[in-house]
Amino acid sequence: MNKTETIHILLVDDEKDIFFLFSQFFKKWIDDGRVKFTFSESGVGALDKLSSSEAKDILLILSDINMPEMDGFELLNKVNDNYPEIETIIISAYSDDFRKKAMNLGATAYFEKPIDFQRLKDYLKEKFKF
Predict the structure, then answer these.
(1) Which domains does the chain have, with CATH numbers?
(2) What phi, psi does 71 have (nearest 5°)?
């Protein structure tokens, strides 16, 4: 990946505060054009965004598990079936069995809440080589 390329990430979580946290923690990267976040408060909303023109360059989804309408596992399955080029990282307060299930369903990684933002940032640096 070219270092000047922006990484477009779809963040899916029904807790509105999480959007603010990501915007603040990644502020420098956003300002530098390294990352762009699109937010959705549900799995259904995420699928709507993925089918729109604004999502044509999304490379990664960060999704919670426990959400209304459609949980993160169902979203993960639908993304894998319909958008296999997009990787999904599950972010959840649940551990062990949920981690195993997420990885078995094809999640790229699993991060527990509260999110260790530095670990996530290090993961993204390694993954996208910047």
Answers:
(1) 7-128 (3.40.50.2300)
(2) -80, 170
